[in-house]
Amino acid sequence: MALLVGIATDLALGQSGGSGAAFEAASIQPFPEGSPIPFSGCQGGPGSSDPGVIDCRYVSLNMLLMQAYGVRNREISGPGWLDSIHFNILAKLPGGTTREQVHEMYRNLLATRFGVALHHEKRMMTTYTLTIAKNGPRLKESDPGAAKADDPPTGGKLPIGDDGFPILRRSTIAGGVVTLYRNGRARLSAGNVKLAKLAEALSGQLDQAVTDETGLTGNYDIALYWTPDSTQPGGRPATDLPQEADAPEASLFAAIEQQLGLRLETKKTERDILAIDRAEKTPREN
User: Fold this and answer.
1) Helix, coil or strand: residue 165
2) Is the pTM above the cut of 0.85?
3) Domain boundary assignment for the chain
4) Among candidate residues 116, 120, 64, the one with its CA nearest the CA of residue 91
5) pLDDT score for 1
């Protein structure tokens, strides 16, 4: 029973790497294709339980570019192999490293170890805006004084709730967004967040920029369930989905309107594109 996890993180757009803040050391190993994938993405670093280490598994250069420059996959223009060759990376951070410095460290890693050279271009792209649906919002405002007595204990395996997903501690989602994928289903959980944070998480699901244009200024607790399609994280072809009686039928777009009273609308926007001029498939020695 596979469980994939996606955690929304703050992204920052920067300039080309090769100078400035750098990892103290970084081990880069080609991922043995065909091996089991424990998870895909990067964890650790500032604000985590392991602030001195970044651990990336099954990451492509496109994923590293997204981490480094704050763009989406569709906002990267380069050879197809950037998204098809994967690596495991274990990097050590200097003490006191900030999140902003981590982005610069990723850029430096790409330039010095993969020889990445790039330039920025402006292109018109389809993006999304988060607006209020016809019947109004269905959002739960956060209660900062809510009790935490019913949180699962720390350590050990998280218990599974009636919805089939692990019960997360409030401290895990406080001020952020966590998305879990299980058996072709998805659940987004957020605690005490602005809708701009929700929009950021949705842009990761859709691989396109999403901006908050609801005009709502409160902080909200959010639980959103949907069935991802095969183009979205955690999605599977319809023929592979389990035929569970309680499995949600809603797509992400329908779920946002039905469960949150919000709506995603498309618009054309000029976006910054990373155009990759050069990159190497084999990383250089540290």
Assistant:
1) coil
2) no
3) 8-122+273-278, 125-144+156-269
4) 64
5) 37
